[in-house]
Automatic annotation (TrEMBL):
<dbReference type="InterPro" id="IPR007440">
    <property type="entry name" value="Chorismate--pyruvate_lyase"/>
</dbReference>
<dbReference type="GO" id="GO:0008813">
    <property type="term" value="F:chorismate lyase activity"/>
</dbReference>
<dbReference type="Pfam" id="PF04345">
    <property type="entry name" value="Chor_lyase"/>
</dbReference>
<dbReference type="GO" id="GO:0006744">
    <property type="term" value="P:ubiquinone biosynthetic process"/>
</dbReference>
<feature type="binding site">
    <location>
        <position position="79"/>
    </location>
    <ligand>
        <name>substrate</name>
    </ligand>
</feature>
<feature type="binding site">
    <location>
        <position position="117"/>
    </location>
    <ligand>
        <name>substrate</name>
    </ligand>
</feature>
<protein>
    <recommendedName>
        <fullName>Probable chorismate pyruvate-lyase</fullName>
        <ecNumber>4.1.3.40</ecNumber>
    </recommendedName>
</protein>
<comment type="similarity">
    <text>Belongs to the UbiC family.</text>
</comment>
<feature type="binding site">
    <location>
        <position position="179"/>
    </location>
    <ligand>
        <name>substrate</name>
    </ligand>
</feature>
<dbReference type="GO" id="GO:0005829">
    <property type="term" value="C:cytosol"/>
</dbReference>
<keyword id="KW-0456">Lyase</keyword>
<keyword id="KW-0963">Cytoplasm</keyword>
<comment type="pathway">
    <text>Cofactor biosynthesis; ubiquinone biosynthesis.</text>
</comment>
<dbReference type="GO" id="GO:0042866">
    <property type="term" value="P:pyruvate biosynthetic process"/>
</dbReference>
<comment type="function">
    <text>Removes the pyruvyl group from chorismate, with concomitant aromatization of the ring, to provide 4-hydroxybenzoate (4HB) for the ubiquinone pathway.</text>
</comment>
<keyword id="KW-0831">Ubiquinone biosynthesis</keyword>
<keyword id="KW-0670">Pyruvate</keyword>
Amino acid sequence: MTQILRTRPTRDDWLAHPPRATVRPRLRPWLLDPGSLTARIRARCERFEVRVVRQAPMRPHPDEAELLGLRPGARAWLREVLLLADGVPVVYARSVLPRHNLRGAWRLFHGIGSRPLGAALFSDPRIVRQPLRCTRLDVRDARYHRAMHLISGQLRLPASLWARRSLFRLRGRALLVSEVFLPTILTLAP
Ligand SMILES: C=C(O[C@@H]1C=C(C(=O)O)C=C[C@H]1O)C(=O)O
């Protein structure tokens, strides 16, 4: 019998609240904090660093495209970074911006370089964050494998990783930011 792997997570797998039964208590504040993840990490380490892994036009994950109202297969601007606390990767983050949103107000996205996106997002009162959603990524999801690839040799990944995401809107135009928490996030104070 051929096993049909559903591509997941689909939209309905992203939850408004992390389930108490499956999310470790120390991880919950990281999934739920509506503030800047950059600021939260910075407050818990000596040296914070954004390592830009890729910033280029790419096809987003199907559920990302759906959330951004892009037709399947459409390309968008993808920014992938690792956030490091005292030299250790603690988050794999990916931000997706529809290319037609790149002009105008979201042009900040283009030139941000290795400065943390969050610093720009949370300093502009015109930018509104939509509610956070979270999910557990496992080997069925390309983002799990991407995180695995990016930190291969540095960390051993568990069978699944919790992630959160939210839309940021500026003049109605959306940017999707997703943050995958690596096991090392638990070495920081909750
Ligand atoms: C949205 C934020 O920006 C962080 C920094 C990012 C970047 O520099 O690409 C991406 C995602 C976030 O973890 C934040 O700090 O909350």
